[in-house]
């Protein structure tokens, strides 16, 4: 089945070049020692991946950079014509595969991840900052259709008519799963506030113990300023037809609360009311007021 069929059945739009080989994704065989990183787009995927990579490389920046160029595993649901798909690449990686990344909503994750009880890190970011970041990403990353005006895009975001669907369903779906599976559920806002504490949480979750100086090195290497100038992390190696950083850099602002520069008072009121409705009945909480 193809991306188009998938979208019709599940009503979840997906990135244009992704998921042409859905059957491969569906039947993907996870291994018990696989680590999965899952996020809704624009929630800090690149950031948490860099942290995990640095942890597995014991703070060796050069190894981490080589990893990023040669064998950083792409999105598992990625499949572009003419390239090895994400799952094909994963199949060639010997155990222990460091990690794999996905933006899939919980109901579309290949079942083998649940069956194998893999460890998973889910990173969430507040909806308003995600919407702003996503709007800029839609403009610079050419795999997206034209987002229209900010107001139009915000409407689409709220309606879940953006790639990977509803933010609300995504964060809630993974939040529910953490009750029964080994999911470390993290927040971008916590990482901004106290990155060292959050890195230590990841270490504990992975059962890794690193010296204080190594942790400090990871902290420095994964700061926004460092990642913004790191060519293996800032996506500047992408050709301009795929990502145009002159429209908006991938490493844009890296802050919490930028939404205040974009939401009008009226948009904010409508958004808050809709948010309340969407999140009704869920114990999920994130920090919006920063
Ligand atoms: P902004 O557009 O708000 O700046 P993803 O990797 O999921 O696509 O998320 C990208 C967002 O994470 C961008 O947000 C980017 O700037 C931010 N980001 C990337 N690395 C970061 C870091 N080290 N610290 C803080 N934010 C970071």
Automatic annotation (TrEMBL):
EC numbers: 2.8.2.-
InterPro entries listed in its UniProt record: P-loop_NTPase, Sulfotransferase_dom
Transmembrane segments: none
Keyword line: Cytoplasm, Transferase
Signal peptide: none
Keyword Metal-binding assigned: no
Top enzyme category: transferase
MF terms in GO: sulfotransferase activity
Family per record: Belongs to the sulfotransferase 1 family.
Protein name: Sulfotransferase
Organism per entry: Chrysemys picta bellii
């Amino acid at each position: 089945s193809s991306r188009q069929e998938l979208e019709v059945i599940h009503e979840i739009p997906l990135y244009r070049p992704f998921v042409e080989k859905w059957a491969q994704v569906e039947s993907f065989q996870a291994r018990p020692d696989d680590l999965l990183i899952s996020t809704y787009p624009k929630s800090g995927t690149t950031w948490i991946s860099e942290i995990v990579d640095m942890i597995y490389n014991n703070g060796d920046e050069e190894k981490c950079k080589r990893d990023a160029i040669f064998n950083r595993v792409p999105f598992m649901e990625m499949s572009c014509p003419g390239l090895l798909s994400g799952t094909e690449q994963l199949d060639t990686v010997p155990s222990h595969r460091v990690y794999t990344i996905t933006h899939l909503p919980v109901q579309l994750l290949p079942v083998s991840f649940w069956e194998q009880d893999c460890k998973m890190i889910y990173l969430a970011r507040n909806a308003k900052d995600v919407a702003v970041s996503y709007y800029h990403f839609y403009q610079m990353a050419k795999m997206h259709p034209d987002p229209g005006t900010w107001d139009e895009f915000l409407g689409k975001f709220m309606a879940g008519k953006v790639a990977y669907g509803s933010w609300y369903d995504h964060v809630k779906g993974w939040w529910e799963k953490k009750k029964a599976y080994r999911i470390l559920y993290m927040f971008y806002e916590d990482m901004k506030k106290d990155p060292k504490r959050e890195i230590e949480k990841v270490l504990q979750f992975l059962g890794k113990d690193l010296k204080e100086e190594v942790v400090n090195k990871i902290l420095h290497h994964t700061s926004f300023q460092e990642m913004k100038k790191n060519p293996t992390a800032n996506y500047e190696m992408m050709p301009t037809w795929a990502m145009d950083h002159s429209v908006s850099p991938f490493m844009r602002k890296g802050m919490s609360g930028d939404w205040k520069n974009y939401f009008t008072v009226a948009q904010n009121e409508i958004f808050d009311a809709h948010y309340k409705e969407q999140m009704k009945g869920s114990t999920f909480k994130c920090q919006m007021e920063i």
